[in-house]
Write a structure and sequence with these properties.
CATH class: Alpha Beta
Number of helices: 2
CATH architecture: 2-Layer Sandwich
Bound molecules: zinc ion
Number of strands: 6
Helix content: 25-40%
Length: 114
C-alpha cells in the first residue's frame, strides 16, 4: 500500500502547515514519476480515511504524473521519452539513457482564507 504511506505523509505535512497558517486546507497538489506513480483515487480514499474528523477532511488531492525523461548520448540534451517514437527529439538519435524517475513531491497546499 504505497498510497497509504503517501497519504499519511501528506496529511502530516498538511496538519503542520495548517497550524502555522491558521487556515482550513482545501487542496493539495503532488507530483510523482511514471514508474513509481501514485493512483489518485486510491490516494484520495486513503487520505479521507486518515483525515476523517480533522480540518483536512474535505481536502482534494491532485496528482500530476511527470513524464519519463531521457538524456541523449549524442547531443547531450534531455527530452521527453515517448514509447511510440523512442528517439531523441533534438537530433533523432537512438542512443540515450532513461533518466531516474522524479521523486514524489508535495508541491502545494492551498488554504481557504476567510
Ligand atoms: Zn539528441
Amino acid at each position: 500500500m504505497h498510497e497509504a504511506a503517501v497519504a499519511q505523509s501528506i496529511f502530516d505535512t498538511v496538519m503542520a502547515e495548517a497550524q502555522k497558517q491558521k487556515g482550513k486546507p482545501t487542496k493539495a497538489k503532488i507530483t510523482c514519476g511514471t514508474f513509481d506513480a501514485v493512483n489518485e483515487e486510491i490516494l484520495a480514499f486513503a487520505f479521507s480515511v486518515i483525515a476523517k474528523d480533522t480540518v483536512a477532511k474535505d481536502m482534494k488531492i491532485g496528482v500530476e504524473q511527470k513524464p519519463v525523461m531521457a538524456l541523449c548520448r549524442h547531443c547531450k540534451k534531455e527530452f521527453k521519452f515517448d514509447v511510440t517514437s523512442p528517439s531523441c527529439v533534438h537530433c533523432d538519435s537512438n542512443s540515450y539513457n532513461i533518466l531516474p524517475d522524479p521523486p514524489l513531491i508535495l508541491e502545494q497546499i492551498i488554504f481557504e482564507t476567510d
